[in-house]
UniProtKB/TrEMBL annotation:
Keywords associated with the record: ATP-binding, DNA-binding, Nucleotide-binding, Phosphoprotein, Transcription, Transcription regulation
Keyword Repeat carried by entry: no
One family name in Pfam for this protein: Response_reg
Chain ranges of the Sigma-54 factor interaction domain: 148-377
PANTHER family: ALGINATE BIOSYNTHESIS TRANSCRIPTIONAL REGULATORY PROTEIN ALGB (PTHR32071:SF113), TRANSCRIPTIONAL REGULATORY PROTEIN (PTHR32071)
Record domain Response regulatory: where: 8-127
The species this protein was found in: Pontibacter ruber
Location of 4-aspartylphosphate modifications: 57
Keyword ATP-binding: yes
InterPro entries: AAA+_ATPase, AAA_lid_NorR, CheY-like_superfamily, Homeodomain-like_sf, HTH_Fis, P-loop_NTPase, Sig_transdc_resp-reg_receiver, Sigma_54_int
Entry protein name: Sigma-54-dependent transcriptional regulator
Amino acid sequence: MATGKNARVLVVDDETDVLFAMKMLLKTEVKEVVTEKNPENLLSLLSRERFDVIFLDMNFKSALHTGNEGLFWLSQILERDKEATVILITAYGDVELAVKSLKYGAYDFIVKPWHNDKLLEMLHNALQARSTKRGGSAKASTTESSPILGESEAIQEVLYKIEKIAPTEANVLILGENGTGKELVARALHQKSFRASKPFVSVDLGALTDSLFESELFGYKRGAFTDAKEDRMGRFEAANEGTLFLDEIGNISLPMQAKLLTVLQNRQVVPLGSHQPVPVDIRLVSATNAPIYQLAAQNLFRKDLIYRINTVEITLPPLRERGDDVLLLARHFAAYYAQKNHKMAPEFADATLRKLQQHSWPGNIRELQHAVERAIIMAEGNVLQPQDFSFSPMEMAATPQQAAPVFSADPDTSMPLSEIERETIRRVIEKNKGNISKAARELGLTRTALYRRLNKYDI
């Protein structure tokens, strides 16, 4: 079954720049990337060749008058091959249509401009889901099996817990700020468990609206709702006998918490449109950057659900508390991105190392990774200088308290969790005068994740 290096990917978009960017990004991740500018050539192309994943733009400058050409071509692809794995490329203004496309059979969507790491993560998850759906064993890709690096006492304690917990069937709750590597820990727990040869299925709960929660997690039967033209397996069933990773679990609403608790208690799901329960055997790993115990004390998160998801807890330290791990990780990312961009592994000037150590890293490892990638691309020589690393005034002024997750509730508030998050996002966007990039950084989110929340809360 095609995963990673032996996969073939098709990108369909009428913007030459998008096709070039996607090809450059994906060519080192998969066996072959085929690009097509004219969607009217799509069916002819699919009749001659097979692709493991198709990236499809939602809007084309064509003669069609469908309101949205992407949905039309999606239906044409799925009519030809109902097993096709299609990821839609969309702009922020079309997010509502993109969400609707999931009901038509799209695997997922990515918002332009995208973050490279998120797009690659989505690609690998799509390949894994395709493998699982067709009966193959989901093996970790190179990205998924990346090591957890660090020599600090804080990270060594995390590694010790992983070794102790992984071989058990205990449900694990991973706590930590955005960018600290929670999904990496979840994958390590899976890879070191007795379920390692079975699927690892990841779900970003923060990206799911309440209306999509049940169909995405529990699946649905044909006719369950308008446009449900065939049965679809939910993430619980896809993870059967393997590990299910529920990211951002602290951000789901109380009604969704109740539905999740029922499934975890009964170890069975009932797909939408069915009355027949389906047993599931999963190892559950959850993660959140939200102050989950504070929320539980305010009755914004169910205490009985915490007991279910938290047999064992792992708290990841922020990068600013990991000492020289900053330099170790910087050198690791530098070697990786130098090789990826066909350059020699660089050295770091002493002043650069001091600058990296002094920065508070509010975005944690993810921020460091992006900073090193930019430096590798933009540096003039083979020695990285302080000026190769530029931080915004907000990042330079960030304190540990400011770098902590902002999705927290005032102890005296009685607002629902969703309203707290909505108000926080609105306030931060106003503070940054509508600058989405700055607001996303302050919230500890990617632009894509913030766009999805804007759509979710109709901001």
